[in-house]
Amino acid sequence: MARVAVFGVGYVGCVTAGCLGRDGHTVVGVDVDPAKVAEVNAGVPPVAEPGLDDIVRAQVAAGRLRATADPAEAVAETDLALVTVGTPSADDGSVSTETVEKVVRAVGAAVRAAGQAYRVVVRSTLLPGILEERLRPALEEAAGRAVGPGLGLCNNPEFLRESSAVKDYYHPPYVLVGADNPEDADAVLDLYREVHAEKLVTNPRTAAMVKYACNAYHALKVAFANEVGSLAKALGADGHRVMDLVCQDTKLNVSAAYLRPGFAFGGSCLPKDLRALARFAEQKGVKAPLLAAALASNESHLRRALKLVRDAGERRVGLVGLSFKAGTDDLRESPMVDLAEALVGSGYEVTIYDPGVMLGRLRGRNLAYIDRHLPHLAGLLAPQPSMVLERARLLLLCTDVADEFDWRGRFRGRVIDLRKDLARPDPAPLG
Ligand SMILES: NC(=O)c1ccc[n+]([C@@H]2O[C@H](COP(=O)([O-])OP(=O)(O)OC[C@H]3O[C@@H](n4cnc5c(N)ncnc54)[C@H](O)[C@@H]3O)[C@@H](O)[C@H]2O)c1
Fold first, then answer.
1. Tell me: domain 3-202, CATH 3.40.50.720, correct?
2. From CA 151, how far away is CA 137, in angstroms rounded?
């Protein structure tokens, strides 16, 4: 069983400290607030959470949980610190890291004084990069040695919700550790032996971002449901019933569908229907900024793709996939059409391959569409992949047409996969 210091016995810290004690670990809570320290030592949690009173009382009585205001005392008695202090918003909205840094420095100084091996695990919510760029130097400076064997630093984002925090502690969606060193990860996962959830390890930046992505997604869900509910009401429909039925679709709605970063959305329905809803909201004076923002967000994504292309510095571009998705010849509001037009307009030499949009095979409405709207693009369509490979110096893989496009070993230029590279930390060339 581990010996753990928990820095900050607020909502996250007190629940974590109590539950770790309950699971057999020896825990020392550390807080700058003497009233909270006294409360814990009296067996009373300083925060109100269902079930926490009994846990804290029992663990203090059993000698597995106590609290102190002295970081050095806590560090000397433990092997690992969980940092659960607050990370509030600064005036400009950025995350304030002052308290976490202070704690990390205090731990570092105590570790230096005691000359002991130690691990610092950040459970507070911090933006990706802060651990590496601010906390690591602070810890190393205070400890007088580098992070590595004998001095661990990693993160372990917390997913509990207030009012069901104890339940959530034991039943999280998963236990997530961000660690570059597998031994640090194992030490953290070992704390949660009694937590029956999937245990996942990734790097600290990804782990930190997962926490923000989850909270942003939850906030978006609430805002989305409220906007749809308000619009439904304005349109004379029952917003509750609407969202019941929306949630009942677990294939496309409440599922992983559409939740992978890729290129912009398009097609004959999504942009058109979003515009109609946003326009209706405007006319009726129903504020629905989220729905309207989805279109603006999509346009920004297109501009990000254009920047990626511009930054690649090649003027001869091969575009693989033109219709809004593979397997259709529907070009209406395809973001690839916008991309191609923007590139052509900027003087790029563009060659396009999409077997679904071969001129000879285009029928009726779509032929008329390309004739009317995109006659200049029609001339850029290559009937054979080899023509694209010969002409282009930069290949843009836009849709799953690229899965059948045999470029590996045949193309010597740069490749950008727009289905993936807009979310990659470093868009390395695939070719
Ligand atoms: N509250 C939640 O539901 C929740 C859920 C998941 C993650 N988080 C994240 O966890 C972190 C903590 O949130 P919280 O709601 O538990 O905060 P909180 O404000 O309830 O608790 C923070 C505690 O830290 C103490 N503290 C401040 N400075 C200290 C120092 N130098 N040394 C020791 N203790 C110190 C405070 O006195 C307080 O008791 C935040 O980053 C938050 O975003 C919170």
1. yes
2. 12
CATH top-level class of 305-423:
alpha beta
pLDDT (tens digit, 9 = 90+) per residue, 107-144?
A: 999 999 999 999 999 999 999 999 999 999 999 999 99
User: At 48, is the secondary structure helix, strand, or coil?
Assistant: coil
Secondary structure element (H or E) that encloses residue 349, with its range: strand 349-353
Tens of pLDDT, residues 297-318: 999 999 999 999 999 999 999 9
For residue 91, is pLDDT > 70? yes
Mutate to test the pocket of ligand 1, among 7, 9, 11 (most ligand atoms within 8 A of CB): 11
Spatial strand order of the sheet with 3-7 comes to 65-68, 26-30, 3-7, 80-83, 118-122, 151-155, 175-178, 199-202
Amino acid identity for residue 13 in this structure: G
Active site residue 214: no
CB 195 within 8 A of CB 158: no
For ligand 1, atom 29, the nearest C-alpha belongs to: 32
pLDDT of residue 37 exceeding 90: yes
